[in-house]
Amino acid sequence: MGQTLAMEYEPLQIEDFDIRRAMEEASRCLLCEDAPCSKGCPAGTEPGKFIRSIRFRNVNGAAETIRENNILGASCSLICPQERLCEQECSRSGIDRPIQIGMLQQFAMEHERKLDKTYLTVNDTYQGKRVACIGAGPASLACAAELAKQGVEVTIFDEHQQPGGMLRYGIPPYRLPDTVIDQDIHQIKKLGVKFELNHTVTLEELEYMNNTYDAVFVGAGLWAPKKLPLPGADLNGVFTAIEFLKEARETHGELTGLGNVVIIGGGDVAMDCAATCKLLGASTIYDVFIETLEDAPAVQKEKDFIFKLGIPMISEFKPIELIGTEKVERVKFEHISNGSTLEIAADTVIFAVGQTMRDDAATWKNANGGFYGGDMMNGGDTVVRAVQEGKEAAVKMMKSFQ
User: Fold this and answer.
1) Which of 64, 150, 333, 400 could hold 125 in an S-S bridge, CB 3.0 to 4.6 Å?
2) What gap in Å lies between CA 159 and CA 199, rounded to an integer?
3) Partner residues linked to 145 by β-bridges
4) At residue 358, what are phi and psi to the nearest 5 degrees?
5) CA separation for the pair 315, 295 (Å, rounded)
């Protein structure tokens, strides 16, 4: 892969807000007393409150509100589906259009980054208590931060080289750069949270942790990939979405030899795979799914991005066979209603049809009792949902300490 394509893989293309534009957008807020936008955020980020702060030029106050309520505030500002959560609930929608809450959150978090601000403090409420968190994804990070703010000594264990879980290894950097993830991790480390990376926890070690820590949180995510049980699914050149995205991230956009790509699935992850293939220089790319275009589960802004990249999306077709000798050569599809068939040449096929728990993670969950959260609990929901579950688990733990 040439240097140009590798460089194109990194930047995040967003529309920046300066203070004038941010205040102009915040001034559109109706200042609802019982802000419906805040109720629409699972993580409790309180957009109603931080928008008010920006409106009155208190950007520090806005960033503090975000960081206090959502330790992953920078990452969530970029990847959260605001249009179906807080922005959908915005009262302004009935007048013209909702407040651009995601952009205002990005603005406040960029203010924090540029000035290297620290808003969170640690008290000694539960000093002396020790908690282990398994997995360094959003739920564990949120749980650890809530505990650390109350004086709990927290250690996060993860098998990867860097913390972040699916944030880092499941979302391409054109949407979520490492620098933004690191900004959130930096704030967590400032609270005193420790990380044990390249560390795979065994069941025996979990049992030891349950006996030596005051509590253990399991937030191991969904890392077992799924392939549809189709003829030819085991041919060379066939990947799952998580395998592909992780390899693309770890090779820093240097993944080569994609050729003609067929992606199966219509969710946000499928869109991520399609855009990543485009940025990595694939010859042709087709995204095929069984839903109608309107019913495909990807959020509209992700579909729009794929359209802008010129990637064809073929709806209402289901895959029935992958064809090839040792390596995949083409994929055969059947229309879900009229039975017509379609064959597409393919050097690479990516199944973007979800993930599930690995066997060891399921064992951890059953062995640990009640303290767990994230994708392994909700089946693969949003990052803000994982943050909510991590925070709720931390509250339960602290009640158990009393």
Assistant:
1) 150
2) 4
3) none
4) -70, 160
5) 10
Render the burial of 331-355: b for 16+ CB within 10 Å, e for the rest: bbbbeeeeeeeeebebbbbbbbbbb
Look at strands 328-335 and 317-324 and give their pairing.
antiparallel
pLDDT tens-place values along the chain, 402 residues long: 333 333 344 443 445 678 899 999 999 999 998 999 999 999 999 999 999 999 999 999 999 999 999 999 999 999 999 988 999 999 998 899 999 999 999 999 999 999 999 999 999 999 999 999 999 999 999 999 999 999 999 999 999 999 999 999 889 888 899 999 999 999 999 999 999 999 998 888 988 898 899 999 998 877 677 789 999 999 999 999 988 998 888 776 667 789 999 999 999 999 999 999 998 889 999 999 999 999 999 988 899 999 999 999 999 999 999 999 999 999 999 999 999 999 999 999 999 998 776 666 666 655 555 688 877 676 667 899 999 999 999 999 999 998
In whole angstroms, give the CA distance from residue 309 to residue 286.
Answer: 12
Q: Is residue 145 exposed (0-12), middle (13-18) or buried (19+ Cβ within 10 Å)?
A: buried
Check the CA dihedral 333-335-336-339 and report its sign.
Answer: negative
Q: Helix/strand/coil (H, E, C) string of the chain?
A: CCHHHHHHCCCCCCCCCCHHHHHHHHCCCCCCCCCHHHHCCCCCCCHHHHHHHHHCCCHHHHHHHHHHHCCCHHHHHHHCCHHHCHHHHCHHHHCCCCCCHHHHHHHHHHHHHHHCCCCCCCCCCCCCCEEEEECCCHHHHHHHHHHHHCCCEEEEECCCCCCCCHHHHCCCCCCCCHHHHHHHHHHHHHCCCEEECCCCCCHHHHHHHHHHCCEEEECCCCCEECCCCCCCCCCECEEEHHHHHHHHHHCCCCCCCCCEEEEECCCHHHHHHHHHHHHCCCCEEEEEECCCCCCCCCCHHHHHHHHHCCCCEEECEEEEEEEECCEEEEEEEEECCCCCEEEEECCEEEECCCEECCHHHHHHHHHHCCCECCHHHHCCCCHHHHHHHHHHHHHHHHHHHC
C-alpha triplet 300, 306, 307: angle, nearest 5°: 90
Q: What is the largest CA-CA distance in the chain?
A: 67
CB 401 within 8 A of CB 129: yes
